Amino acid sequence: MNYPGFYSDLFRTTLPETALEIAALLVLVVDLGFLRKAALNVRLAVAASLGVLGCVAGLWAISIQEGFGLYVDDNLVLSNNHIAQSAQCGILVLTAFTLLLLFDSVFTRHIGEFVAVILMSAAGGLLVASAQDLLIIFIGLELLSLGLYILTAFAKSSGKSAEAAMKYYLFGGMSAAFLLFGFSYLYGLGGSTNLEAIQGNIGQTGPSPLLYLAWILIVAGLGFKIAAVPFHLWAPDTYEGAPAPAAAFIASVSKVASFALLLTISLNLLSPSGPIEGQRDSVEHFVRGIYQAWQPLAMILLVVAAASMLLGNLAALAQVSVRRLLAYSAIAHAGYILLGVATQAHYTGQGSAFSFLMSTVGPSYRSAAAVLFYVLTYGLTTIGAFGVVAVVERATGSDKLDSFLGLHKRNPLLAAVLLILLLSLAGIPPLVGFWAKFNLFAAVLSVGAGPIPFALVALAIGMSAVSLYYYLQVLKRAYVMPAVDLTPIHVHPVVTGVLVLIAAAVVLLGCYPTLLSNWIGSF
C-alpha cells in the first residue's frame, strides 16, 4: 500500500530524471519552434547550453534528496544510497561534457533532436543507477538503450553509422531477451521483483541450478551493456561508426549506469539482512546460503573478466583505427572493473558464519567504492579521448593512426591533452588512471590470500603493460614520427576549454585521489 507522502517521495526521488526530461522538451521547443531558420552554430550552442543547464538542475536535485529512496509496500524500489548518488552525479557530469563537445560539430542538422535524445537516454541511466526492482531496472535499461541506438545512427550521410546502428540494435535486442529471461527466473526463485526480497529468499533456501542459469542470462544481458567478452562484438563497429559525441556518450555514461547496476545486484545478494537479529543459527544458515549461491556466480564474472582483459588488450594491438583501438581498450577496462564486482564475497571455509559475515562487509563496500572510482574516472578520460579524436577526424577526415602524425606541431595543446589522457588510461602515475587501478587491485587482494586473487591481479597488471604499448603507438605519431601535413588544427574555444578541463581534472585527481574517493564515501 502507498504510505502518506508517497507521491512527494516519488517526486523528490525522480527529480533528477524529471529535470533532464524537462530540459529535453525545452530543447525541442526552442530549436524547432524558435530557431528553425537560425544558423547551425547558433542552434547548436543554444541546444547544448540548455542541455547543460538540465544536467546542472539534475545535480542540484540530487543534492536536496533526503532519506533512502522510494518504498512500495515496504520494499525499496528506488535508492539514494552512495552507489546510486555517486553514479547519478557522474552520469550528469559526463553528459554535460558530451554536450559541450558538440560545439563545432557538423555531422547533423537535427541538433535539437540529437541533444534531446542524449538527455532522455541519460535519464534512463539515472533510473538504472538507482533502481532496486527488476521491472524498474528493465524500463531504465530500455530507455537508455533505445536512445543509444538512435544516437549511433544520427550521422545519416555515413554508411558506417547506419551499419553500426543496425548491429548495435540487433545485439541489443538479443541482450534484452537474455536479460528478461534471467529476470523471469530470478522472479520465480525469489517470489518478488524486488532485489532485497529476492536476496532474502535465496539466502534462506540456498542455491539451485535455476539460480545459476538466471545469473548466466543476466551476465549475458548486462555483459552486452559493458562490452565484456564474449558479448563485445558490437563495440568496435559502434565506436568506429557512431558520431564521435555519441561514441563518447556510449563509452562513458552507459558504462557508469551498467556497472552501478551490477554493484546493486551483487551487493543485494551479499546484504546481511533477512535473519532475525540475535539468532545465531539463523544468521549462520542465512550467510552460508548466500555464500553457496554467490561463489559460483562470482566465478562466472571472473572468467568473463579474464577473457575481457586478454582479448581487449591483445586485439587492440592490431588496430589502425584509433576509434577501434579505444573500443578494444574499453573491453579490457570492463574486464578490470569486473574484478572488483566479482570479488565482493570471500569465504575461507574456516570459522563461523559470523566471522565470515564480519570479514566481508568491509571488503564488499571497499570493492564497490573502488569500482565507482574506476568507472567514473574512466568515463571522464574516455570522453576527453573521443573529444581529441573528433577534432583530429574533422581536420584530417580520418581516425587512422597516421592522422595523428605531427599533432604536437599542428596543435601543441591538443597533443598535450592526448598525452595526459592516454597515459592515464594506461595507468601511469601520477595520473588518476594509476590510482583507479591501484585502488581496484588493492580491493581485489583485500578479500584474502589465495591463488585466484593474486593470479587475476598479476594478469591485470600484465595486460596494463600491454595497453601501454598501443597507447604509445598513438603518442609516437603525435610526438615522434615526422608530420606529413603541418597545417595548424583549429579547435572551437568551448571544445578547447572542455578538453583542458578534463585533462586538468585527470592530473588533479591523480595528485589528490582522496578528493574523489572521499566524495564517493560522503554519500
Could you walk me through the main structural features you see in this protein, from its secondary elements to its overall organization?
It is a single chain. With 523 residues, this protein is mostly helical. It is 76% helix and 2% strand. The protein has one domain. The protein has helices at residues 6-13, 15-33, 40-63, 82-100, 111-130, 134-152, 159-190, 195-205, 209-226, 235-241, 244-270, 280-316, 322-342, 353-396, 407-410, 412-426, 432-445, 451-479, 493-511, 514-521, and strands at residues 69-72, 75-79. Strands 1-2 form a two-stranded antiparallel ribbon. It is globular and about 70 Å long.
Brief write-up:
By secondary structure, the chain is an all-alpha fold. It contains 20 helices and two strands.
Task: Provide key terms for this protein.
523 residues; mainly alpha; two-stranded antiparallel ribbon; 20 helices; single chain; 2% strand
Low-confidence stretches: 270-290, 345-363
Q: What's the shape?
A: globular
Portion in beta strands: under 5%
SS-based structural class? Answer: mainly alpha
Sketch the major β-sheet: 2 strands, antiparallel
Topology:
Elements: H1 6-13, H2 15-33, H3 40-63, E1 69-72, E2 75-79, H4 82-100, H5 111-130, H6 134-152, H7 159-190, H8 195-205, H9 209-226, H10 235-241, H11 244-270, H12 280-316, H13 322-342, H14 353-396, H15 407-410, H16 412-426, H17 432-445, H18 451-479, H19 493-511, H20 514-521
Antiparallel strand pairs: 1-2
Helix pairs in contact: 2-3, 2-5, 3-4, 3-5, 4-5, 4-11, 4-14, 5-6, 5-11, 6-7, 6-11, 7-8, 7-9, 7-10, 8-11, 8-12, 9-12, 10-11, 10-13, 11-13, 11-14, 12-13, 12-14, 12-18, 13-14, 13-17, 13-18, 14-16, 14-17, 14-19, 14-20, 16-18, 16-19, 17-19
